[in-house]
Design brief:
There is one protein chain. By secondary structure, this protein is an alpha/beta fold. Helix content is about 35%, strand content about 20%. The protein has an eight-stranded mixed β-sheet. Helix 1 runs antiparallel to helix 2 and helix 2 runs parallel beside helix 3. The longest helix is centred in the N-terminal third of the chain and has 39 residues.
């Protein structure tokens, strides 16, 4: 199939055999907070030991263990947890293998590469503005290197693009996905515009899957944009990101197969 206009095939000039690295969602800010808390608790333990206050030391140790657990949860959610959830969501779509898939806010490509594996005769296109505050080491070059490392460079493409103004013709993609990206857009109007753009580039019968903080609030916008089958569900403990009970939702939708029909 022909590449989508306006993007460059990833992986050219990359090194075979390198390991894919997907960074940490939210950059290092979240882990830095955990580190500062741990340092403060360690100082409290040391102070309590000098002052012979075992109860205070014990409480500080318990607090340190809780913070360490939260940090571990954060790392899991941003790594294996996220990839596991998206592998399941993509499998649920029952792809034929020749679809065009768009990942809005692809970052270093964790979801993009999972999609690419499932469309050996199709294309997986990722767009982003590549802000480091959204993901550690976030860059177009990092996504391209990961395409090489994952062995999918022949079907992965990346583009510099704002989600609110996608550089694609209407009805270009069979599937549009997005993970923890649209919430980074400031203002409800900007997020709504990104959602409308995602619907615009979907082909009739195409499907949309968005995992994001506040994705439940996207449902009315998608319905107004003409989507059908709009549903919201919580994704469970794998999306805690260090906060027990914090479930990130999925919003799923579809574009009608033809005017006046429902999927």
């Amino acid at each position: 199939m022909e590449p989508v206009a306006g993007v460059t095939t990833a992986g050219r000039g990359g090194r075979a055999g390198q390991r894919a690295r997907y960074g940490i969602d939210g950059g290092y800010a979240g882990l830095a907070v955990f580190g500062l808390i741990e340092a403060g608790l360690a100082g409290t333990v040391a102070w309590a030991a000098r002052r012979r206050r075992p109860a205070v030391a014990a409480l500080a140790c318990l607090g340190g263990a809780a913070v360490a657990g939260s940090a571990a949860s954060y790392l899991y959610s941003t790594g294996p947890g996220k990839r596991g959830i998206w592998a399941q969501l993509l499998d649920e779509l029952g792809l034929r293998g020749d679809e065009h898939v768009l990942d809005v806010g692809c970052g270093r490509g964790a979801v993009l590469m999972l999609a690419a594996r499932r469309v050996p005769a199709g294309r997986a296109v990722g767009v982003d503005v590549w802000r480091r505050r959204d993901q550690s080491g976030n860059s177009r070059a990092a996504a391209e290197r990961n395409a090489v490392a994952e062995g999918v460079r022949d079907r992965v493409e990346v583009a510099d693009a704002d989600a609110r103004d996608l550089p694609f013709a209407p009805a270009s993609f069979d599937v549009v996905v997005s993970s923890l990206a649209i919430s980074n857009i400031r203002g409800a109007s900007g997020r709504a515009q990104a959602l409308r753009e995602a619907v615009r580039v979907l082909r009739p019968g195409g499907r949309l899957r968005i995992v994001d903080d506040g994705a439940d609030r996207y449902a009315p916008v998608l319905r107004e944009a003409g989507c059908t089958g709009v549903t919201v569900r919580q994704l469970g403990w794998r999306t805690w990101y260090g906060i027990p009970g914090h479930h990130i939702p999925l919003v799923a939708a579809a574009r009608p197969a033809d005017p006046g029909s429902s999927l």
